[in-house]
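Private note to self, pasted from the team thread so I don't lose it. Backbone tokens:
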């Protein structure tokens, strides 16, 4: 009975918590508690800050799979990439899938397809300034309910809704050690459902500002603040990445409001990077992530 109640809760809140505002997509991001907005170009740039796509020098791909909060029924798998078409044309493509599955059936499924691009406004040996955008297609589907009778005769029918969102990003660098990043999620205020306030769900608008500093070639640090627009509460995050050698990298992150802790390790094998991480939660079980990325 408790598991059924948990399933119902996840199905009810999943639109607002995952399709538009989940900040820990990918094992690397989980390890650094989602503090990605001011980091170097990586396969997840199209999700966290499309402006950094402009910095990419190679085509890279990342794949990730996990059970959120160690729950076998709450599945997520993600794909993200940067495609280096030419020196001036670089794009990002991503796909994410969240589902609540019980008895072999998806009670709720959320999918997002993203396309982004980053463009340099200025770049020289000492500094750079880039902007970027991401276009997102959201789709949310829900299975029919059993109803009071339990056999579906008086339940709510299956439904599927979709929407489109636009994200904007900016990143500035100075002398290879200092970085500032800004990201605005769902700039166009998208919603799911009918065009009336009584029957649609407004997708979360989120603003993120972050700075990164690399005091050593083997160490990078980040500080980030995040705010849901319409909410006065601010979420703060700090993280660091330490390269022990060319094959082993340690990741660490702390977040406030709510308090969360991330820890991870990346193993470099030629062009492949295997990352495992753990992300705690204030009340729910921890989430364990495993992911792989590689360059072409």
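Design output:
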């Amino acid at each position: 009975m408790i598991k059924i109640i948990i399933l119902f809760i996840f199905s009810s809140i999943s639109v607002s918590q995952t399709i538009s505002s989940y900040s820990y997509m990918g094992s690397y991001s989980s390890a650094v508690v989602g503090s990605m907005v001011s980091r170097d170009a990586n396969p997840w740039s199209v999700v966290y800050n499309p402006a950094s796509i402009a910095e990419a020098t190679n085509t890279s791909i990342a794949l990730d799979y996990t059970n959120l909060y160690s729950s076998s029924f709450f599945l997520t798998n993600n794909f993200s990439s940067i495609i280096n078409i030419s020196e001036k044309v670089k794009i990002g493509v991503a796909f994410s899938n969240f589902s609540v599955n019980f008895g072999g059936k998806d009670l709720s499924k959320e999918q997002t397809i993203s396309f982004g691009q980053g463009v340099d406004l200025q770049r020289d040996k000492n500094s750079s300034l880039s902007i970027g955008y991401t276009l997102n297609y959201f789709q949310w589907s829900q299975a029919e309910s059993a109803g009071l009778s339990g056999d579906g005769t008086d339940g709510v029918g299956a439904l599927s809704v979709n929407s489109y969102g636009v994200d904007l990003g900016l990143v500035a660098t100075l002398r290879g050690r200092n970085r500032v990043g800004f990201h605005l999620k769902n700039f166009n205020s998208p919603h799911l459902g009918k065009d009336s306030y009584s029957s649609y769900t407004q997708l979360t608008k989120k603003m993120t500002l972050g700075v990164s500093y690399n005091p050593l070639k083997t160490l990078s640090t980040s500080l980030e603040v995040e705010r849901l627009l319409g909410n006065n509460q601010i979420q703060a995050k700090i993280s660091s990445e330490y390269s022990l050698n060319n094959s082993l990298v340690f990741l660490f992150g702390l977040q406030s409001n709510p308090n969360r802790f991330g820890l991870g390790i990346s193993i470099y094998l030629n062009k492949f990077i295997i990352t495992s991480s753990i992300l705690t939660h204030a009340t729910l079980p921890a989430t364990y992530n495993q992911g792989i990325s590689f360059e072409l």
